[in-house]
Amino acid sequence: MSISFALGAVRPPDQMPDRLACNWMLISAALAVGFHCFHLPVWLSGFAACILLWRFFIENHAWRVPPRWVRWFLLLLTALLVSKQYGTLLGRDPGVAYLTLLVSLKILEIRSCRDYLLAVFLIYLLLLGALLFSQSLLTGLYMGLLIVLTTHTLILLNRPQPLTYRQSLRLGLTLCLQALPLLLIIYLLFPRIQGSLWGLPQDAFSARSGMSEQVSPGSINRLYNDDSIAFRVTFAGERPPQHDLYWRAFVLSDTDGRAWQRHQGTGDGRTNWRYRAKTPAVGYTVLLQPHQQRWLPALDLPAPLQRNVRMIEGYALAAVTPVHYVRRYHLTSHLRYTTGPLSANETAHNIHWPIKPSERITSLLQEWHQTTSSPAEIVRQALRFFNKQPFYYSLTPPLLYGDALDTFIFDTRIGYCEHYASAFVALMRLSGIPARLVVGYQGGEWNAAGDYMIVRQSDAHAWAEVWLQGEGWARIDPTAAVAPERIELGASALRQLSAQGATIGQLSISDAKRLISPSWLRHAWQHLSWRWDAINSGWNVWVMDYGREAQFQLLKKIGMETPNWLSAVIAMIAAIIFSLLLLSALWMHRRKKQDPVVKLYNKFCNKLAKAGLARAPTEGPLDFSRRSIQERADLRDPVLRITAEYIELRYGYFSSTRLNHFRQRVTAFRIP
Amino acid sequence: MLKPSVEQIVDYAAPSSMRQNVELLLTHVNKIIIGRERPVRLALACLLARGHLLIEDLPGVGKTTLAQALAATLGLDFVRIQFTSDLLPADVIGVSIFNTQDNRFEFHPGPIFSQLVLADEINRATPKAQSALLEAMEEKQVSAEGKTYALPQPFFVIATQNPNQQIGTFPLPESQLDRFLMRIDIGYPDFEAERMLLQGQDRRQLLHQLKPAIDQQSLLLLQHSCQQVHCSDALTDYVQALLQASRNSSWLRCGLSPRAGMALTRAAKAWAYMAARGLVLPEDIQSVAPSVLHHRLQAQDPQSSRPEELVRKLLESVPIP
Question: Count of CB atoms within 10 A of residue B53's CB?
Fold first, then answer.
């Protein structure tokens, strides 16, 4: 089927479409509204569904279209309800909600054929609105399906003679597939202008995000049950061991004794983020999901750097603008390193503790100082303290009140990484050792199906850094002293263990491993979900991450020295014209595509033509052979045989064996 | 060494007994019509394709003789209707006469109830009489006074006419022309043939001596076999290209009808069969096209070109696909 068929006879404008077309229109409208029900309030989707149902009865059970005053009433009612729900009619959410209701109302009041067509175009618009909410692979697939269905509805509405829904679906699919090359060209080359004009309304970014840049007790805990993906990492070389995977997001050194935040002062004055690496670099690529903030996770410690990325306090990376879209960046990191000396200013800042310690803490610290004066030894003492004393790891610790530090260390003794890290930093600072809190992610899940690491929100982690003479900033994870399972097996293992009732910190690693070893069913499920995630990751890399930079790189690759939006437009128009030419050439070629018998016969005729015996276009094979023989009696035998075989193949019955004979004979035919 | 000819190599030859029948028919007729092999062959092809034949030529070239020779050779019962300006339809179809003994009307079949009807000088009759032939030719039946009478099988009409320019002629309406599968002309014999004609026996005597070459069963079988000749897609493409070209041309008043296309294929099948070939070739189409299309094509400007030239022009404008 071709486009001309689709555009062929069009229904006369005064003739109403048949019931099949109307019902398909309702189906596509319902599916398009259904697409939005994930983010619309339930009452609103229900309202739209009721209106469509009403239309269904009008179409199929001869109900009457409601009178004008009812329609006006419904229109005002929807405007009122939407603005009541959202407080405004502007912005993404109320806008789409209002659009959904208006489209349903338009469908309700359809009277003429023109109205039907208008409704179909409104359905397309409604589909487009779904992109404001999600751009995932599944959304794309669902949208593709709905576009085919809506196109099919449009065809049904336009055809004057009845077309079965199968024929029309096929035609719709063909049309959409034919549009694919154009879609690809426009996707790749349409200028990607950055700015508010093209941006989403502000409320589009208010959705849930990952970690906030301020940590108070409980802020990481809330992520533990969040299985959504924070970022994915592909390693260039070998993957570092699990216990070395500390993904630094940001460093917190300002505290009021309870909550921690990033250093608000003049910074630690460093512009030169250098360190001495002790191990070779690890290269990797991070594919970060949008989190609406600036921090960019990196493996300890990242080496500087690429465009649009800054290094901020404590070797953490930050983007210039908040990460609203999927972002991909390449980095190299070193896992063992020595940072340089600390300035007096920095030292003072990093040993500051705003609250006077309780007596129990003072005596504990005095006890440590009596045995040793070396900071490294005090660190070891502190870790030993966490390890030997009955500290427990739990995701649901009791609430801390009063002097939180004192209560935690001596009374409750139940907490998770954030408690241990902040308590540890507090103890270090009180002992006069510069220390700070690092927040990020630890570990991750290796996706064997795609050879990359998945780091989820639930892998969020907090640890400490202390500054030691000769070593510089050193990573200390007190959680590892309390619950080694967290570091060795990961956050998800921890959750499974606590779900099975095991006390965390009491089991050996091998026992814990055995306890959570997956059943074959779970194993298979895991493999499936890995594969699905690999597909999604590919979608993110190839589709979502394709932005201005990637477009300019593509333009450079096709030979444009200094790409800008104008060159993108030129390239796009050229590509469209070229592909249209190519398509029409292909089409012409297909029309002209000869069957092999004719092709071979023409070859034979060409051979004779070179000997001065050209066949006239209106000369039949028999006449031509007679004439040829008259002119060249020596060729009688081969000419007769070839002509006879040609006649049999072309005007008799075709057989592939005969074709082979024919081919051999024509190929062997020589004119002496 | 026996050198092969294309006809010998191609398998789709008709059975030899059939071929002999065709050859026999041709030699019989050629004994009477000397030196005009092509018109004779075309006339026979037309009859084998179950079509009606229109012979148009000057008086005295042997139109009637050809018709009589065909009738005699095919062993058909033959009647000749001389068309004149005062001929009435009842003179052709028949008439109901009141039978006083039985007290009812009795239908007396007219001359058309024969296997081979020679409508001589058909364009001398009025259109009313001409149209009496119409139903008979297409439907192979006759309606008179509310009753339908089937015509005998096989049923052929061979009509002859003088060129329309002559005085006292009524040109055949186009609808009736379309019912003739072929329109042929005989033309003058060449010098040698004419000499033989002049020196030989009287044609009329020879006609009386002519024995039927085949029986009616064989004739029906021959007609049936002709339609079994294979017509491939490639050939249909060619026929369609010709039809399209005629419809798109600027120099024709109107394009060829689908019936013309069917006639072309049918005639070409018979032509191929007579050449002892089991499949139709473009050459067959080209051979029969002048006769089949001649009376179906009209030039935009009738003064400028003759029908023969129109067919030639059409064939030359369409390459064989």
Answer: 26
Where do the H-state alpha helices sit in A61-136? 68-86, 92-108, 113-129
Could you tell me which of A629, A618, A541 has the C-alpha nearest to residue A233?
A541
Q: Dihedral sign for Cα A486, A490, A492, A493, please.
A: negative
Alpha helices in A11-91 (DSSP H): 19-36, 42-60, 68-86
Q: Which of A251, A238, A253 is nearest to A302 (CA)?
A: A251
Does residue A382 surpass a pLDDT of 60?
Answer: yes
CA distance A29 to A146: 9
Q: How far apart are CA B28 and CA A582, in angstroms?
A: 64
Residue B121 is assigned to a structural domain of this protein: yes
Q: Measured between beta carbons, which residues in chain B are less than 8 angstroms from residue A651?
A: 230, 232, 234-235, 279-281
Query: Which tokens belong to B14?
Result: 């008709």
Q: Number of A:B CB contacts under 8 A? A: 61
Q: Give the per-residue pLDDT at B7.
A: 47
Interface test with A, best of B237, B280, B283, B312 (most A CBs within 10 A): B283
Tens-place pLDDT, residues B64-96: 888 888 888 888 888 888 888 888 888 888 888
Which two structure tokens, joined as six digits, stand for B157? 């009409």
Residues of the domain holding B67: 31-198
Mean pLDDT of chain A: 82
CB-CB under 8 Å, B316 with A618: yes
First CA to last CA across chain B, in angstroms? 36
Count of the separate structural domains present in chain B: 1
Helices (H), A461-519: 478-482, 484-489, 491-499, 509-515
Q: How far apart are CA A448 and CA A316, in angstroms?
A: 29
Nearest residue of B to residue A597 by CA position?
A: B234
Residues of B in contact with A648 (CB under 8 A): 10-12, 279
- What's the CATH code of the domain at B72? 3.40.50.300
Cα three-residue angle A416-A418-A421, rounded to 5 degrees: 105
Give the bridge partners for B97, in sequence order: B106
Asked if residue B176 belongs to a domain, the reply is yes
pLDDT category of residue A218 using cuts at 50, 70 and 90: low
> In chain A, what residues touch B14 (CB-CB under 8 Å)?
none
Query: In sequence order, what DSSP letters do the residues of B99-132 get, joined into one string?
Result: ETTTTEEEEEE-TTSSSEEEEETGGGS-HHHHHH
Closest CA to A491 of A408, A418, A438: A418
* Residue B238 is assigned to a structural domain of this protein: no
* Interface contact flag, A621 B282, Cβ < 8 Å: yes
Give dist(CA A203, CA A495) in Å, integer: 34
Long-range contacts of A578-583 (CB under 8 A, 24+ apart): A579/A181, A579/A182, A579/A185, A583/A181
A interface residues, B as partner, C-beta within 8 Å: 617-623, 625, 636-637, 640-641, 643-644, 647-648, 650-653
The closest alpha carbon to A454, from A366, A382, A343, A540, belongs to A540
Q: Which residues of B touch A625 (CB under 8 A)?
A: 6
CA dihedral of A556, A562, A568, A572, whole degrees rounded to 10: -60
ipTM reported for the complex, 2 dp: 0.85
Contact B281 A643 (CB under 8 A): no
Q: Report CB contact under 8 Å: A651, B6.
A: no
Strands B156-161, B116-120: parallel, antiparallel or unpaired by DSSP? parallel
Percent of chain A residues past pLDDT 90, beyond the cut: 10
A618, A621, A651: residue with CB nearest B318: A618
Q: Is the peptide bond between B171 and the residue preceding it cis, with omega within 30 degrees of 0? A: no
- The answer to whether residue B274 sits within a structural domain is no
Residues A214 and A462: beta-carbon distance below 8 Å: no
| A165-189 helix and A137-158 helix, angle to the nearest 10 degrees | 130
